Amino acid sequence: MALMFVMIDGVGLAPAGATNPVASGFTLLARALGAPLTDALQLRAPGRLAVPVDAMLDTPGLPQSGSGHAAIYGGYNAAASNGRHQPSFPTIAMRERLARQNLLIEALRLGARVAWANAYLPGYDDAVARRRLRHTAGTWCALQAGLPLRGLAELQHGAAVSWDITQRLARTRPGAAALPEIAPEEAGVRLALLAQSHDLVAFETYLPDLAGHGRLDLTVEDALRLVDGLLVGILQSMTPEDTLVLTSDHGNAEDTTTRIHTRNPVPLVAIGPAAGAFEPVRSIDMVSPALLAALAGR
What we know:
alpha/beta; seven-stranded mixed β-sheet
């Protein structure tokens, strides 16, 4: 049994309508669930769970990625602990806490085989050292757990996935021009293959959030279509013993009337035999404990 955890940045749940691409953008996932991704999503059945969960974390203001990611991977209310929602990247205090305890560290302590599936291109380490880039909370957690950061070689051999899913953006970076563009479904197949030799495979993508902010040459609809293809690639390739789990850190892509985040709930979807472990989850800081409970019960 393996768990595949996908963190999708910037996807909230809201009523269906002309300004909500999320309600109509996850066509294939909605077909698998038998319901669209809206704030009315309420699916609880054997092997299937899909519900809205809270991203506000009892903290005023708009939810942000820094505290949202820390809450998801750290299993604690990072926004309330910080006194406010933290944009983009975790604070020093968040990093210190995540260095002691996070999903990946705790999974290893349970004896699980863990894969951080995101790939990092040539120059990433240098850019971080020069403070031109900062680690996401997920990347920080992987490093603190002692997991290797996959790179160009793993991408070329199909053993990692680029944050942009298809490698279209990745191949424009220095040293990565030889990467082929792949179908989003192929990226999902890669994650399912990693699950054959790991108990927990974790991956994060920021496509919907960056598209929602207008920071990509990609529409929100196109970004959601790519994520949808990734998820369906996983579902079509995973074994009957595997479980796919996905959530998000905050809303954004579900409201095209604004380019800022929203206060909407975010989706929690679990498909597979471990779906029942996520029944108690009501907010994003409860996702990591549920993943660990599922791993402990495997």
